[in-house]
Amino acid sequence: MSIRQIKETCLYVTDLDRTTQFYHEALGLPVIGRVDGRHVFFRAGTSVLLCFIAGKTKEDQELPAHYGSGQLHMAFEVAPADYANWQEKIRAAGLPILHEATWKGGHRSFYFHDPDGHVLEIVEEGMWGG
Amino acid sequence: MSIRQIKETCLYVTDLDRTTQFYHEALGLPVIGRVDGRHVFFRAGTSVLLCFIAGKTKEDQELPAHYGSGQLHMAFEVAPADYANWQEKIRAAGLPILHEATWKGGHRSFYFHDPDGHVLEIVEEGMWGG
């Protein structure tokens, strides 16, 4: 009866091309679905990231309506051996690193914005224990 | 350089006790952190669910500010063998099931609300392929 993981996480965005450029071209996440004017979906390891045009899913009739505004937060997990390379990759994409932290247990993370101002974090595997 | 998973997903809530009653008592997620007036965190398998009092993290000085409103969507993954038991558990908790779906590949999911109206989904492992 245990939950395995959070499989789907959603963000609400304004421009699917810009979102695709960021998550696919800059971060390297595979695109696994797109409906123009409504959504683009990405694979993020064992999880999926669902990016919906803000407001569109509020009108959904068939599926339960959902929506959101603001600058949401989520974190991607990477192997500790890849952490420095991810910092380099983000900097090379011209994205300012907003903050770096070392948490209990010595696990590191850093923060940056997506094009809609959502607050993304890269965390080292091992953080949050298990 | 691959992302392993989305490790942290956030929701913005209004009452930490009510949120704890729901996610911990009703759904069975372990509580892994709480700061009264600010947040309660839950383990959800290999992921963590961070529930922040709406507005509190907008004022953050040390960490990058984030915030959100609306009725956000996220999905928990369970083993196919547990799927029917999860439906029963949700019904037994007095929570209306908003919608049920069978997706490409035959994977099933169902939707229900949390106390803040966030739109939760239980999906069978295997959905979204890999």
TrEMBL record, chains A, B:
It comes from the Bacteria. Pfam families: Glyoxalase. PROSITE patterns: VOC. SUPFAM superfamilies: Glyoxalase/Bleomycin resistance protein/Dihydroxybiphenyl dioxygenase. InterPro entries: Glyas_Bleomycin-R_OHBP_Dase (IPR029068), Glyas_Fos-R_dOase_dom (IPR004360), GlyoxalaseI/FosfomycinResist (IPR050383), VOC_core (IPR037523). Residues 5-125 form the VOC domain. This is VOC domain-containing protein. It comes from uncultured Cytophagales bacterium.
